[in-house]
């Protein structure tokens, strides 16, 4: 008897008769899922980098503002 049995109504799935696990055997669907996961990972990383850059810019602007306040106070 074969270890894997086709799941009715799902051409890309088989069931392992020993462990009762469902296994996706659709290689293109697996590849698409991996690509989507990689895109999500990259997008999350880009968002984190953007947040860090914004935070850094906010700090820089705050520092510049403080320096300008000092310069203006010394001019008066």
User: What is the gyration radius calculated from CA atoms?
Assistant: 28 Å
Structural class: alpha+beta
Mean pLDDT: 95
Helix proportion range: 55-70%
Please report the number of helical segments.
1
Q: Which strand order does the major sheet show?
A: 1-2-3
Distance between the termini: 94 Å
Estimate nothing, just give the exact number of structural domains: 1
Strand residue percentage: 5-15%
Q: Give the overall shape, derived from the CA principal axes.
A: rod-shaped
The helix-strand sequence is EEEH
For the biggest sheet, the summary is:
3 strands, antiparallel
Low-confidence blocks of residues: none
The strand count comes to: 3
What layout of secondary structure does this protein have?
Elements: E1 4-6, E2 13-16, E3 22-24, H1 27-75
Antiparallel strand pairs: 1-2, 2-3
Any descriptors?
alpha+beta, 76 residues, 13% strand, 3 strands
């Amino acid at each position: 008897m074969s270890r894997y049995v086709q799941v009715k109504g799902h051409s890309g799935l088989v069931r392992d008769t020993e462990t009762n696990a469902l296994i996706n055997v659709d290689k293109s669907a697996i590849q698409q899922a991996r690509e989507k996961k990689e895109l999500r990972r990259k997008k999350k990383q880009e968002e984190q980098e953007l947040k860090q850059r914004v935070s850094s810019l906010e700090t820089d602007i705050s520092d510049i503002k403080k320096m300008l306040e000092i310069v203006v106070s010394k001019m008066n």
